[in-house]
Design goal:
Layout lengths: L24 H6 L5 H8 L5 E5 L7 H6 L3 E6 L2 H4 L6 E4 L2 H4 L9
Parallel strand pairs: 1-2, 2-3
Length: 106
């Protein structure tokens, strides 16, 4: 598992590195983009700044950047964040996201 520990109660299999919550990084890298970027683009003003929690490898991040949004991509996995291009990245345990508030800093 590439030296990365999987949290107690989680397990994971798949190609390449496995994240702390058991996700295979390569599997997430291969996933196609769904309708999420369209939904987000319709809901927020053009050029808005977006905080994406659990960004993974950028499946949604990259299309949002392509539409002119400024994205801060947050994930707990350094291996996931290695695939992000064009966005500010923040590595943070997902347990911290539930207590995050607007204006907070990590």
């Amino acid at each position: 598992m590439s030296g990365q520990l999987v949290r107690e109660g989680y397990s994971g299999t798949g190609p390449g590195a496995i994240t702390p919550d058991g996700c295979a990084v390569e599997l997430y890298r291969r996933l196609s983009v769904g309708d999420e970027p369209d939904v987000i683009a319709a809901a927020v003003p053009a050029g808005a700044t977006i905080l994406e929690l659990g960004c993974g490898t950028g499946r949604v991040t990259h299309p949002l950047i392509g539409r002119g949004f400024e994205v801060t991509a947050v994930d707990e996995s350094a291996q996931m964040l290695e695939h992000i291009r064009g966005a500010r990245t923040v590595r943070s345990p997902s347990s911290r996201w539930t207590s995050a508030r607007r204006g907070s800093t990590w």
